Structure formats: C-alpha cells, structure tokens
Prior knowledge:
mainly alpha; 8 helices
Amino acid sequence: MTAVQLAAAVGIAGSAMYAVGDVFMLAARVGPRLARSRRFDWTTLPGLARRAALFDTLAGMPPKRLAAGALLGVFATPLVLAGVWLVYRALAPAGPWFAMPAGLLLAGATILGGYVHGSFLHLAEFAALVDEAEDGARPAVLARLLRQVEVLKLSYGVALVLALAGTLWYAVAVAIGATALPAWMAAVNPVSLTAAWLLPQRWLPEVVVRYTEGAGFNIAYLAFFTAVAVYLW
Length: 233
C-alpha cells in the first residue's frame, strides 16, 4: 500500500467516525432517550431560542451515548488530518503557494473541529442540569451554559472561516489546472458536497435522514476524500 492509499483509507475512516459521532450526539430519532421528570422550555431564552430543538435533544441524550459520540470525533481528528494531507498532495504540483495554504487552513479547521465536537458533551451535561435544577438554582446553571455557548460559537466560527478559506484556496488551485486533479474537481469540495447533501433532504427516504441527522458536514468530507483518492490512487 502506498502512502497515498494509506492516507486515503485513514482519512475516509476518520470522516466516517466523525459522522457516526455526530449521529450519536444529535440524531434524536435514533435510539433511546432519557426519561425526564422536568423539561425546560428553551424557546424562552432569547439567546438560545433558535437552537431550542438542539438543546432539548442534548438534554435528553443518555450520557454514555453522548460520551461515545464526543470521543469518536475527538479520536478521529488525527485520522482526518491524513485526508487533509491527501488533499495537499493533490495540490502539490501547483506549487507551495497553492498547496501549503490550503492544507494548513483545512488542517486548522479540522483541529478546531475536534475541540468543537468534543465540547458538545459539556453543553449536553449543562443542558441536562438545566432540566433537573430547582427554579432557584436554574439561573446560575444557565449562566454557565451560556458562557460555554459563547466560547463554542467563537471556536466554531473560526473553524468555519478556516474551512471556507481552505476550500476556496483548493477550488482556485484546481480550477487553474496545475494540480493532480482535473479542473472540474474544483466544484467537488467540502462546501459544495455539504450543500449537495443537505438540499435534497426532503426527497431522501425518511430512514436515511433519521440515521444521518447532524452528520452532513462529515459525510461531505468523506465523499470529498473519496473523490480525491480516486484520482490519486
């Protein structure tokens, strides 16, 4: 097995692990939920009302399932970096000014993504505490949860900017035509593949949507690494 083939296999496996971790944490219609004696109405919080369904889902997930989902993504991060190296290798013929920035930006997004993914476990624990807390104690728990949300928003925002910038750099390099990939592969990237997965959801079988809930971005990465691997194999 060559280095390219090994990196392809490892990167694809890492993306698959990430996707499974997403399903463990976010697929509310798959598997058992906690029996909750209380249920906080998240729509009453102006800062979290738009994400009320997310926090209600996290609060009702079994702790072991949440831990497994969070750790799958954290442990998969080094494997996904092998896929990023594969992309760098594909861009290398275009020269370092095309290959290096794209590789570093995508690697940075992946590393921060591991932190963001794992942090959902802590959000879930605080969301469950909000459900369980007495009325007098709930404001203090909510305050701590909101602080974590702000940190996570910043981390997620930076990771998203890095991913978008890395994707754009990749697309420009491939479109110019000096890489190991055909020029049309510029349109095959994490952003376009995420959109291609999310937009037709209403036409997909309900069972597919249910068992892949929350995993769209990592399914896109899996498809992206697979497409790049096909041309480098």
